[in-house]
Amino acid sequence: MKRAVLLPLTLSFFGITTLIGCGKEPQVLSFDRQTLTKDTTWQGTVQINGDIEVPPGMTLTIKPGTTVKFKRIDEKSDQNMYGVESPYYPQAELIIKGKLIARGTPEKTIVFTSSEIDARPADWGAINLLGSDGNIIEYCKILFAYNGVHGHGAGATINHNEFAKNGVGLSFKKEEETPSAPWFGKICNMEVTYNRFTNNKGGIGFRNSKAVISHNLIQDNKFYGIFPKDDADAMISENEISGNKKGIYLFQAKNVKINNNNIYDNTDYNVAVAEAQDFDVDARRNWFGTINPEKIQESIFDKQDDPEMGAVLIDPILKQKVAWQ
User: What pTM was estimated for this model as a whole?
Assistant: First the structure.
């Protein structure tokens, strides 16, 4: 007797997309380049083969426990929606012009990663937030991206995540490069708390934006832990920043407050200003791994090393570690 063959079915109920198979192994949703046409929810395992755009007015929701895997594509691939000009990436990416709700749980994290066996940083582009507000990224693992999360003129709550093995874990800035963009001239506004940024090339980089960056572990990133640029209205507090090449590196940064952090054992400097930094930096009330003034100053690069630069103002220093967690 011939056996009936049961084919997997793609079902969509109330905007929730699920693939159901006949075996025990979970099936994989696979998406080529496309723009969503309605509010959509992903769950299970999702394979991304090209750019996915969430247009204005639409929401992409990702359920706890979901794994989103990105295929490594060439910049000339027909899976690229916009090419390689900023603010887009030559790799596959999520382009969020509407809203992203990726809210995992401590028990069921959401994973964004490469689908390649030989996974490496920049296998995929970014969770790219373009002019969108109300985005939530919580209890996620973000691995092997060019920029894990990137924002142009966007707003997001980014809490309780792990960023590892990316080019840069998190980057965001005011939109100043694309005059035709509806969000041109808009700053980013980010809440970044209780995350782990480890073993990326860079931890957090931002410019001309507003941010609260607190209660994060920022450790063992190849080039820098935090890199503020230009008019960055940011409060950086109660973070653990160690093991990076430069703990905090500032380029023409003003309105940045760096207080009540543990900043120590970074290999080049704990805090350093770039050549163009001629503003003083408020870095008072931090723990620098010691109370020895000479050793603290050795770990800082500022006006004392080049009189044309701004000063890193550190007094008063803390005499014990901050309970940053």
Answer: 0.92
